[in-house]
Amino acid sequence: MSIWRKLNTLFRASAHEPVAKLVDANDMRIFEQELRDAEQAIARSKRELAHLMAEKTRLERDNAGLQAAINKREQQASQALEQNEETLALELANLIAEDEALLHRQQQQHAKLQQQESELRRQLRDSGRALKHFYSEMRLAKANRHAEQVTRQLRGHATGLHSHMEDLNVSANRIRARQTEAEDVEDALTKLDQEQQHGDLDARLKAAGIDNGVSDGAKVLERLRAAQDQSERTDSSQPQP
Predict the structure, then answer these.
(1) End-to-end CA distance of the chain
(2) Which of 70, 76, 105, 209 has the fewest CB atoms within 10 Å of its CB?
(3) CATH code of the domain occupying 2-157
(4) Rounded to whole angstroms, how far apart are CA atoms 125 and 123?
């Protein structure tokens, strides 16, 4: 049975997983909607506070009117007693008692409204500060998410740029290699042309019997013999001891 319970747990977890992923994927939208809901709740609370304050003000006016009526009837009751109008004084006293009971109930209601107003004001004040904090959190979260997106984009651009630079470097090397090869071929052709031109010139000089300045073995021997003859003449011209 333990295996079946584990499988059942796994199925329930698997069913929950898409919902969790959906919530995670839309966390910012959910957060923004929750902030809007909180703003609407604060606005409703403000209206409730305004109605409560208006009711408290109405009670204050009613209580002030009742108190004034009680004071006036007390004076009337006192005058009736002075004139020995016991029945009239008792009637006035009953009215005073009813008004005093009503005034007491309304004063209790006023105190309760005052307490509710203070509590609601505190809640609105705390909620307003918390809402500002959460709005700051949302702006920071959006900024961080935007920074993450920009970082990912820059990383992708940097990777693409590096690839482009490598391609450009390869192409530039190939172009330089072809240019170097072309220059080498051109230099070789120039040398061949110069050699061919010199060969033709030497042939024409030789055909014309003109020395082209090229040294060969015969000329070297001729130069050596001339140098030897010169040395012998120099030795013979010197006086013998």
Answers:
(1) 142
(2) 209
(3) 1.10.287
(4) 5
Question: Among all chains, which residue has been given the structure tokens 């809402």?
Answer: 131
Averaged pLDDT, 3-31: 60
Burial of residue 43, with CB atoms counted within 10 A of its CB: 0-12 exposed, 13-18 middle, 19 or more buried:
exposed
For the chain, the structural domain boundaries read 2-157
pTM of the model: 0.50
Distances (CA, A) of 65 to 61, 105, 108, 172, 229: 6, 14, 16, 100, 162
What are the structure tokens assigned to 135, written together? 């709005």
pLDDT in tens, 82-140: 898 888 889 989 999 999 999 999 999 999 999 999 999 999 899 888 888 888 888 88
Q: What angle do CA 28, 34, 40 make, to 5 degrees?
A: 145
